[in-house]
Amino acid sequence: MKLTIQRATILAAIVIFVGLPLSFYALGDAPRRSLLKEAISLATLIAFAAMLGQFFMARSNTWLLSVFKPPQIQKVHKYIAYTAVTVILLHPALIVLPRALEGGVRPWDAFVTMITTLDNLGLVLGLVAWVLLLVLVLTAYFRKPIIKRLATHYRGWRYTHGGLATAFTLLALWHAIALGRHTDPRMSALFIVLALIGFAMLAKLYWGAPSRPTAPNPVQKGAAS
Amino acid sequence: MTTHEDNAAPTRRDFIALSGASAGLAAIGAAGWAQNAAEIDAESFTNTDHATDVLVIGGGMAGLFAAVKAHDEGAAVMIVSKGRLGASGLTPFGKGFFVFDPKTESGSIDDFVDTVSRSALGTNNPVYTRQVAEHSRDRAAELQSWGYFDQTLAHRPFMRPIEDRDIPLLERVTITHLIKEDGRIAGAAGFRLDAEETITIRAKSVILCTGAGGFKPNGFPLGDLTHDGSVMAYRIGAKITGKEWNDGHSTRVDHPAATFDGWGDMFERVPSTNGVDVHHDLGVDMNYRAYALGNPVSGGPGAPQAETPVAGGPFVPEEFQRNFDSPPGGDGPPPGAGEGGAPGGPPPGFGAGANVGGASAGMAVHKSEGLVPINDRCASTVPGLYAAGDALGSHMSGGIYTQIGSSLAGSAVQGAIAGEAAADYASGRAASVIPDARLAQIRDQILAPLRREAGYGPAWVTQTLQGVMIPNFVLYVKKASMMQAALAYIEELRDHHAPMLRAANLHELRLAWETRNMILSAEMKLRASLFRTESRCSHYRLDYPEVDDANWRVWINIFRGEDGTMQLEKQPFGTWPAQG
Amino acid sequence: MTIKSINGCIGCGECVKSCPCDVIRMDHGKAVITYPADCQICHLCRMYCPVDAIEMSPEKSIPVVVPWG
């Protein structure tokens, strides 16, 4: 099989957005639980990484536009959105549902306790992020009528979608680092770096000016070349 | 009335054995005498004053029903609990609830009471045995309606009737004192675990639902039960009974302290009900086997039976002798019976493997050890003071485990009866006035361990107590010389360690009070066991191995004499105590 | 180590309240294993935890006194 630029890109994406979280999970020292619970944890980690990946599968990634055709990118962006968003939206339920299979607190009771712990900042951030994601996904689904009604049409839509995505990512990331079982410093650093690059690309697209990323940025270099 | 005197002096060998048991304790991290690295300032404590008609102390099965029924009888009620409602004491771990259903039982309630009395060799109080059978079905129905039989954890179902009735609930409060004024109960006092605050609760009547206790042993989830209720009641003049009986549960040799693991999946089970199933479950027999033949001891459902017959040992009536041949989950007693029904043998889920006794060291048989009841309504010898469940020495089962699942059921039934009785007592009665000086004195006592600049660490004293009291040759296989030796140790702890316990924080303050209570309970257990010069049910003496019906068809009551010393008296089976 | 570790704590305090032996305390919004020597390994904290954050071990952190050798 020839290593075309397309294949290399896909491979790199898989390594960064799946391989790294998986290996950081494996290296982490959070205790292993049942197969089901670990599978759910992994699915959530990969889903969140994939959500970060969405920033790279967008118009903002000019370099990618030179490798793949925009409709191709759009399609993948959509499919990943459907699957990853489903996992993330189910994330609160997925935390408590396995308890139905064991003695102890019942899933619904656990759920109520969880979402009413409002004195915990990390938890409140997660709740707000969840609502933002719901708005993000609903607006994306109904984008056609929305775009029609927006005075600024497509440009306004882009700001809405990108803005919501950025806000969600910020809050969700903060939430994950504050509370996450697997977000040790290594995993947190990975997510932060990916998010910052994504934000930077988006900023560059919106304001045209080159942004000042805080981390070394190979993708940016690629985009500049 | 007899004052206890036993002159058998401990032999030198006894002393060596005892010191051996506590040797090396200094090396295990719990500092003995040391400076008090106080983390909080005793002078910064505030006090909160509460008042109610009926105060329920304890948040287990008995406390729940005591509060609900006292409220429904028209009293203002308050619950105070060391832990969380439904998540402290032994209630969270009992899963079997005995229900006598006349529709499905082949025998009558009379038959049931007779069977229990035969197994218990007369040690049970038939009035209380009958009560559990008569009321268990109603209590189970109420629990059912609160969702208790729908889930593993009891806190939420227990909260339903409490929230419906708006009953105030103080959780994570350690009660250290009962207050008596003008010859009757006047309230209680203690401190909060989460704030620098002492608590005073004035009450017209008090119901102790404080459970029994142990020596914080390993292998049984009673680390928070240290006989607090009965020791506080003893200090204000209540009579205490049943201290000579022994719960004989064992635990695994591997990870003996892992109570969850030792009980298989029982702690995760959803509670269920069971019908009449009367046993004579000892546990002491296993201790005797280990004492006579050495280790390893296996036993219990599914475990291979020991081949070597052992001579002597505790007496089991022929009618109730059973072997544990049936495989786990087979035709034997329902595995769910567990702690609530408390078979004396090894808990379910053990299978084959080496066990070691002493899991519940310091605890007597459920319902046998606690305040002496003066009637069938859970009243103690102190006017206005009631007790229910394991805090009441009702001898519902007798000095042995008889009916499976009756522990939880008995707590529910007695809680309800005590609740109604206490509400009746409080009705129309004015609250006693507690002088401010008395309250100030109590607050000083509560906080004293925090103020000590140096003292004994409560953990060290507890471990020393465990080293003296847990070995099977002290309270499981008893003889006068060894008990005298142990008593000498305990008196030392009582006189020279309990008054010098230190506490650096609120956690240690609780440990200090628990340690004091355990020391007094140990003294009671030794004195009662020395006093009963026969063997019966779970009380087994090597020097008096026979059942002695001529002299000992009696319960033993303990009370504080006017000179402050521990006094013992006999109360014949089937009678109520002399009022005085 | 009795109660072994807490991962993914949301600070709801259920474990603190449901521990019979006062082993766990809150510190800066998270449950912390504060007095492990008193843990009776009963798993109530684990069972009450809404987010399954608690990992248990059957090992007691202090030597155990048993009645015979």
From TrEMBL, chain A:
Keywords: Membrane, Transmembrane, Transmembrane helix. The chain crosses the membrane at residues 7-27, 39-58, 79-101, 121-142, 163-181, 187-207. It is found in: Membrane. It comes from the Bacteria. The keyword Membrane applies. Signal peptide: none annotated. It holds the Pfam family Ferric_reduct. It is a multi-pass membrane protein. Residues 45-171 form the Ferric oxidoreductase domain. The keyword Oxidoreductase does not apply. GO terms for cellular component: membrane. This is FAD/NAD(P)-binding:oxidoreductase. It comes from Aliishimia ponticola.
UniProtKB/TrEMBL annotation, chain B:
GO terms for molecular function: electron transfer activity; flavin adenine dinucleotide binding; succinate dehydrogenase activity. GO terms for biological process: anaerobic respiration. Residues 464-572 form the Fumarate reductase/succinate dehydrogenase flavoprotein-like C-terminal domain. Residues 299-354 are annotated as: Disordered. SUPFAM superfamilies: FAD/NAD(P)-binding domain, Succinate dehydrogenase/fumarate reductase flavoprotein C-terminal domain. GO terms for cellular component: plasma membrane. NCBIfam families: TAT_signal_seq. This is FAD-binding protein.
TrEMBL record, chain C:
Residues 1-29, 30-59 form the 4Fe-4S ferredoxin-type domain. Keywords: 4Fe-4S, Iron, Iron-sulfur, Metal-binding. It comes from Aliishimia ponticola. PROSITE patterns: 4FE4S_FER_1, 4FE4S_FER_2. GO terms for molecular function: 4 iron, 4 sulfur cluster binding; metal ion binding. InterPro entries: 4Fe4S_Fe-S-bd, 4Fe4S_Fe_S_CS, Fe-S_Ferredoxin. This is 4Fe-4S dicluster domain-containing protein. It comes from the Bacteria.
